[in-house]
Amino acid sequence: MVGLVVVSHSAALAEAALGLALEMVAGQPPRVVLAAGMDDGSFGTDAARVAAAIEEAEDGGGVVVITDLGSAVLSAEMAVEFLPDPDAPVRIVPAPFVEGLLAAVVAAAGGGDLAEVAAQASGALASKREQLGEVDPAPDGAGPGLEPGPPGAGAGQSAEGAGPGGAGPVDAASVGTEAGASADVVLVNPMGLHARPAATLAGALAGFDAEVSLEVPGRKPAPARSPLSVAGLGTRGGDTVRVSAGGPQAQAAVAEAVRLIEEGFGEAGEAPAAAQLDSAVSTGRPAGPGLGVSPGRVVGPAVHMPPPLAAPAEAAAVPPEARPAEARRLEAAASAVVRDLHDRARAAHGDAAAILSATAALAADPGPLEAALALLRDEGLDAERAIWSAYSDVAEQFGAVGGALAERASDVRDLRGRVVAALRGVPAPGVPERDAPFVLVARDLAPADTAGLDPARVLAIVASEGGPTSHTAILARSLGIPAVVGFPGAATLAEGEPVLVDGGSGEVVAGPTEEQSTGALTAPVPKERRAFAGSAATADGHAVSLLANIGTAADAAKAAAAGATGSGLFRTEFAFFDRAQAPSEDEQTELYAGVLRAFEGSKVVLRTLDSGSDKPLPFLDPEPEENPALGVRGLRTAFRHEGLLRTQLAAMARAQTLVPGTQAWVMAPMVATVEEAAWFAGLARAAGLATVGVMVETPAAALSAEHVLEHVDFVSLGTNDLAQYTMAADRLSAPLAALNEPWQPAVLRLIEATVNGAGLASARPGAARRTVGVCGEAASDPLLARVLIGLGVDSLSMSPGALAAVAEALAASTLEQCRAAATAALTATGAREARDAASGVL
Amino acid sequence: MQLSALVDWIHRYKDEVVARKDELTDLDRQIGDADHGSNMARGMQAASDKIGAAVPATVGELGKSVGMTLVSTVGGASGPLYGTFFLRFGTAAGGVTELDAAGLSAALRSGVEGIVARGKAEPGDKTMLDALLPALDALDAANAAGRPEVEALEAAATAAEAGSAATLDLVARKGRASYLGERSAGHLDPGSVSSAMLVRALADAAKG
Could you give the ipTM of this predicted complex? Predict the structure, then answer.
């Protein structure tokens, strides 16, 4: 058997990790020798002890060495040199400490050879990466965070057709072919293939000459020899799993796997037994421990979050004679969605009613439906694909325009899901809608689910996954909804069953007794959120200017009503869209004056036209470009159309004289060089505008901030574009969404570089203080907003709806804490780590 | 250089490390895990005790004894790194009781190459190599110019101290300090400081 050596700075750490790993082995464990900590009990590693441990662990099959960090690796390498036999079969593996040890123990106990045990240990991070939504770094260089393709479209067997969850056999039905064997089997043990059964399975199958894999819909097939991959499938009792095998003993291996799974690993009887035992005490059935992340004790019916809706699959064209019927089916589904939205809007009150009415109006827009019907009629797309395609086009256009319209793109995608769900006869994706308050049960919530989380309806959230910094936890706390995460029994809660949730203690009880329910709320108490008072400061009194992003005079009025005392970004391009000609100077003057009037006594940052190849306007004679995001856009448009810019600046200057009580600041978008900034500043000052700035959206501008600020008075960071250009990832590319993140440490470092540049420019003799603002989406994230302030940003501009939450978050932290969070985020290894690090500090 | 002077080198280095233990630990506190001084003091005390109790008969034995003791007593990454240095130094010197200028330089270079192989660091990574590599070059240059041993080692010690001082502005790319990224700039690398002390102790031992 392969022997193992564990090298760690800490004896306690090594012993605990080994204890955890040995739990996984039912039979004879491999020989494991620890070389951990120093003799005097302090942290450290000792190469001589490691060498002795390797000799002791040798059991005839070679030795795999698992290390923690730093000197453990060096000591292990050195120990190998100490061995009497320079060619001794020893492998130091680049494995994560705990997972690697666990995988190695299981593989060695299962009789794996040295290469197999080393490979299992080295690959042990894969299931955690998959669980957390990251993909293995592919050998071809695709980085983490990139989705390999549409969900479910992996190289494995398709989830469609006879696969699990499809129309195939549900009970164990074996199919033997020359190439191998497979069978579908239903899990009987309530917790599914968690680590222990997965290890049993791996051990039992190790003796067969066969490559066995397990598969569930929507996940990559997991090799049965890897318990962590199998556990990573996240299966639950009642799930159907496909067991497939290749190799000479494929049939026998599949039969053995099916037998073991059907036996339930000795766990099948546990849940009912526990329930009976419990009913002797009370009728309430405690479903196990979870982690309370947002306090509050409530009781209400469980409602499960429906699974995400997959994009319609490619299919053969609908034959012409069937197209009229398919078209009627689509029209019926679309009108059912509109009707449903109207009905619910009428039944709702306040904000919810307004939102539902707006969505219903969007749904009633005949454009997408007509486009879909044309696709169906002319190209034979089926109803699902036709409407999916039509709405996707609209969402993409909205996204490309940016600003407020981009925020509507998610509404369009929501509608797309509703119509497709209606066609399929399944519940609409997203947070379920109910008239009465309920307990939402989900795997985890995504940021996109925020909009559907109505604190007036959602009594509590129970999630099977996630920790204290998961999206679910952050979201629940910000909305004041009690929540328990990491609750493994979530999937076993019956739909509609009353559930008691205590978000403080983490307790979740299905079918609670009256006694248990005493004192628990049955109606939500939405968190009182103070309206934004117009000013914000950290807990220790460091004032932060919070401003609103606006596009029209109507937006300005709404933002002022929401408490905003100024605007950090007025997107002037909204006045230019849908026009054959640019608006006249008089018309623009009127428009800008209207916006300035909404913020008397404060300031408005007017951004000159941000248009071009990414957001074409007819009067700019756009030329199609290969890479619009890298093309003639923003200020670059003005190099060819200087007259347009001059007119705009003249109108802004006139508007300022009409409304002298408001400071009109002006800035240019998409600046890359000092020369561009100087050119713009010259034109703006000549027009009579006193305070001139530029946006920092390119890494070039961020790195040149000091010199840019010799020519302008302020800069404003557009974090969305800055992320796009820093990470070389198109904002509109869905597979690259994980890269397009202001939390990426590289983006944060460029923000830091900008602030530092402003500091240097301000320190020049005779220079006035240069300010740095942020007007991208980053500013509206309450956590990131504090990191930005910690980095030294002066003002934050955001959609008015986010003002109160950001002000509240700032008031909860001191400037010192913000700075510590910024330091933690800057030195993190990735976006997720940066968020976690900042969240840990704050 | 006689074996007795090399034994003296180890004792002098121990004295120096023990005396400046807190200084090394403070440096490590800025950009590491605050244990370099205590680790090195513990290791060198043990090495010094070991060769005091069982006086090595050859330079090879001296290197092996000091190297193995450091490996087993330092605990942190400096254990395998300084351990490798002395083991390779001893192996290269072999069973002799005296090293001439070329022999001393070759043994030192072999030890430093061991550190390179072990830590996989490069010049400019803000590590002990930023002190040791300039010291070797200065030693070889002085030897080539035919300068006496005392002067040549003095030049090496000065180069090591200059190299260590220059780590102030570097960004760490190896070891725990590398986790700090740009924030490691503005601090001396503790390993380079203890390495410069090692070369200085050798120069002092040569003076007798």
Answer: 0.75
